[in-house]
Write a structure and sequence with these properties.
Mean pLDDT: 81
Helix content: 10-25%
Shape: globular
Largest sheet: 18 strands, antiparallel
Distance between the termini: 28 Å
Number of strands: 45
Number of helices: 15
Radius of gyration: 30 Å
């Protein structure tokens, strides 16, 4: 049992990337104590405990208890809390519980005006929030800087008893480091990397790039082979901007203490002591912030603010340990800002950031006897130039190159600070890690698990989820999907598939190829062809636009089909090909123009007839123009289909599509022309610690078309919940030539359940959704082209089709259970196009 447990969490680290740097003491001393009010004896929540002469510090919990690792005894603890006089306590023994009583301190600040029911910190924080847009580094138009970044990943809290009991762990003893505390625990370092690079950003016009200079990386090979690792680290660090309202981690919005909604979620206190900044002479004020409800996705910590400009000098924040952010059991961040002169004003800019997080598949409190994945990230910035000349930015971009790998000796003079003892020990320990046989196997398994592909040199086999499929027309379908790997060619890309259906006894195949030009803005020529099954009414092309950052899962995947209400048989065979050209005009606008020619065959389940006469094939030719508009998104991983769009904002993404086409009915000689207009808008809106997502789609088809070319409204026919599909509809029963739909999903992130005493410890999250469809079809016009099957319902009602649902998410952090109802809008209860009026649904999600 424990061996499986350990293996599980070793693999867990492989998809948790990003780090910060902290040092452990040399002497294993653990001090435990409680901070109490001198008068009442009650515990003082979230008091500070610091070791004098050291950077080591901690917060007490909500009952005043704290635990801190120190150096050699005797040592001096400095205990403080807002509203109390600080106290120094000399500790000579690590045994027992040290009880420290603080006396209430009365503070008078005559220069700060206080409103009723407020303390001086509220006035200061209002001014910080009022000036945050001006002070936000994200609002600087252009900059150029140097970055030093280091990353440490490790598996910690390995119990010594496990090492003695299991041979697999004993084989790693040369790679283990004893943790510097009184408990017999070990750490296994998995990755340590350093990189020096130059970053440049211009917002108008939008130009963003990095020029890597040198890099060092040691540890498990999975991190070097996983192409998304560096992108994840960049996203992980860039999200760390407390000037934004939310810091989004694992798709959960964590509310910043200077958010516009901060007063609804935080309590603030002003430290009685003030300081002066040595460089600017401005007064510095220290403010402590604590959550009003610690189960919300909020922080606790302290920030230092400049007087007069009300900008942050530094902030230290940790995620509330009771919050329900998936997988993260500890999240601590420290950010320091420098002041730079921008024309006539001082502008804050990040000087350094440190981030540390502990991951676990289950939410466990610190101190539990379980191994956790620990990641640490440190970034330091120097030589910052604000608003450099645009001509210089464009010129430097031409020097983009791969980072040069260098040795430890060559990296030494490039570091801002020397390596900590933990980092030095990690580098030595990792040299033995890849020599262990089962570790090499776990490396390969982690790459397959994380990417969905098995790499075989120049070719990747996968995704593995596409290997087995099941539907009513093909039966069990066996596929061999593959693609070229990143090492095949920097400009050429190909992917394809061969497959066979056991029920229809037909072989299937597809092939897509592309060439990417060496230009700053993306330019790609693509061509492809297929002889493949085609789900009539599935509208997978539009669905792929909405799920652009994710692997698009079709309904006939084997594990989806297991939860199906019934196997969908609305499949036929399609063969033909396309050629397309994709171009980025700016970072926020791209276009794709595609010409395609496909033949759609008549089948047993979707027969084609024209006025009773059989039609063997529909030949379709189409020219389409697709635009992607987003005013604040950045293309990160950019290797053909392997793209990630990163955006920290709540701005919408807009996809307009215009298509012009013709069709020919083979066997009856009928042909026609059509035009299609389609608009999709999707947006994520953070509302405090809650999240609202919506998708709007609307469009029209001009001209008469055969029913496979109508807009089939996506359905799933499964007990699995799909946010962008209707759950209670049969496929192809609603097909339209004019339509508008709105799909809403509102995640409350535990806002209501966190208030119920017997339930809140489960860290569950509430979710509500609503799906509305208006659709129309001119039956007489389209039936002249192709006879519509009896299962297509021509719905021309002015009343919408509506589904509403609610559910509980975050069960074991990955599962959700909900209910979906069809809302009657004056129609019969048993509709021919809806298979049920109520269904229980399941949802699997990571980090939502």
């Amino acid at each position: 049992m424990r061996l499986n447990f350990f293996t599980k969490y070793t693999i867990l680290l492989f998809f948790a990337c990003g780090t910060s740097v902290a040092s452990f003491s040399q002497v294993p001393t653990r001090l435990r104590g409680q901070v109490v009010d001198e008068a009442s004896g009650a515990g003082i929540p979230y008091a500070d405990a610091r070791i004098k002469g050291s950077s080591k510090a901690t917060f007490a919990n909500d009952s005043g208890y704290f635990s801190i690792s120190g150096g050699a005894l005797p040592l001096t603890l400095i205990i403080s809390s807002v509203g109390y006089e600080p106290k120094e306590v000399v500790v000579e023994s690590a045994q027992g519980l040290h009880r420290v009583a603080l006396r209430v301190q009365v503070t008078q600040l005559s220069e700060v005006r206080i409103r009723p029911r407020e303390n001086p910190a509220h006035t200061i924080m209002r001014k910080v929030i009022k000036n945050k847009d001006r002070n936000n580094p994200d609002n600087i138009n252009a900059y150029k800087l140097n970055v030093y970044q280091k990353t440490l990943g490790q598996l910690k809290n390995i119990d010594s008893a496990w090492v003695e009991e299991y041979a697999a762990l004993r084989s790693l003893q040369k790679s283990m480091i004893k943790q510097p505390d009184s408990l017999p625990r070990y750490t296994i370092p998995l990755l340590f990397s350093e990189e020096v690079k130059q970053e440049v950003l211009s917002r108008n016009p939008y130009i963003s790039y990095s020029i890597p200079e040198v890099a060092r990386k040691s540890g498990l090979s999975v991190f070097e082979e996983a192409s998304l690792f560096s992108d994840y680290v960049d996203i992980f660090s860039r999200e760390l901007n407390f000037y934004n309202d939310n810091i989004v981690i694992n798709a959960a919005p964590m509310l910043s203490p200077i958010s516009s909604l901060a007063f609804a979620y935080y309590n603030f206190w002003l430290h009685p002591d003030t300081m002066r900044d040595s460089e600017t002479g401005l007064r510095l004020m220290r403010i402590k912030f604590l959550p009003k409800n610690p189960r919300n996705a909020v922080f606790m910590g302290e920030l230092t603010v400049y007087d007069s400009i009300y900008a942050i000098k530094n902030i230290s924040a940790k995620l509330s340990p009771l919050s329900n952010v998936p997988f993260i059991i500890r999240y601590e961040a420290r950010v320091s800002y420098m002041l730079l002169r921008d024309s006539t004003q001082l502008r804050p800019f990040v000087q350094s950031s440190n981030l540390e997080a502990d991951y676990h598949f289950l939410k466990l409190k610190d101190g539990k006897d379980h191994a956790v994945a620990n990641i640490r990230l440190h970034n330091s910035y120097s030589d910052v130039q604000l608003n450099p000349p645009l001509s210089k930015i464009v010129e430097d971009e031409k020097t983009l190159a791969a980072a040069q790998k260098i040795s430890e000796e060559q990296m030494n003079p490039l570091r801002k600070d020397s390596l900590s003892s933990v980092e030095k020990e990690a580098m030595v320990a990792m040299s033995e890690l890849n020599k262990v046989g089962w570790v090499a196997f776990a490396n390969r398994a982690a790459i397959v698990l994380g990417s969905g592909y098995y790499n075989a040199g120049k070719v990747d086999f996968g995704p593995y989820g596409e290997v087995l499929k099941l539907n009513g027309a093909e039966g069990v379908r066996i596929n061999l999907p593959m693609r070229t790997s990143n090492t095949f060619h920097p400009n050429f890309f190909a992917d394809g598939m061969v497959g066979f259906g056991t029920k229809d006894a037909k072989a299937k195949c597809s092939l897509d190829m592309g060439w990417k030009f060496n230009t700053r803005l993306r330019k790609v020529v693509k061509v492809g062809g297929e002889y493949n099954s085609f789900r009539v009414g599935g509208n997978e092309a539009h669905f792929a636009l909405l799920k652009e950052n994710s692997l698009v899962l079709s309904e006939d995947l084997l594990w989806f089909s297991i939860f199906s209400v019934q196997l969908d048989d609305k499949y036929t065979t399609r063969y033909g090909g396309y050629v397309g050209y994709e171009r980025e005009w700016r970072r926020w606008i791209s276009s794709t123009i595609t010409y395609s020619s496909y033949n759609i065959e008549s089948s047993q389940y979707t027969p084609f007839t024209h006025e009773g006469n059989p039609v063997s094939v529909i030949n379709q030719q189409e020219l389409s123009l697709h635009l992607r508009l987003s005013s604040d998104s950045e293309l990160r991983s950019d290797f053909f289909a392997r793209r990630i769009y990163m955006s920290n904002s709540n701005l919408p993404i807009v996809h307009p599509i215009l298509s012009l086409g013709s069709y020919y009915l083979r066997g009856v000689g009928y042909q026609g022309y059509y035009a299609k207009l389609h608009l999709a808008v999707k947006q994520r809106i953070s509302l405090g610690t809650t999240m609202l997502r919506y998708v709007f789609e609307g469009g029209a088809i001009l001209g008469a078309v055969p029913f496979p070319l109508l807009e089939g409204h996506r359905s799933i026919e499964s007990f699995m919940f799909a946010p962008y599909k209707f759950n209670l509809l049969y496929n192809l029963t609603l097909a339209s030539d004019r339509y508008a739909s709105l799909m809403l999903e509102y995640n409350l992130n535990g806002l209501l359940l966190n208030r119920i005493p017997l339930i809140r410890s489960l860290n569950l999250k509430e979710m509500f959704n609503c799906k509305i469809l208006y659709n129309f079809q001119d039956v007489a016009k389209h039936s002249k082209v192709l006879d519509a099957p009896g299962y297509i319902y021509a719905r021309n009602s002015a009343k919408p089709y509506v589904e509403i649902g609610t559910g509980i998410q975050n069960i074991f952090q990955v599962l959700g259970v909900g209910c979906v109802w069809r809302v009657p809008m004056g129609e019969p209860k048993d509709l021919p196009y809806a298979y049920t009026d109520f269904s229980v649904v399941l949802k699997v999600s990571f980090g939502k």
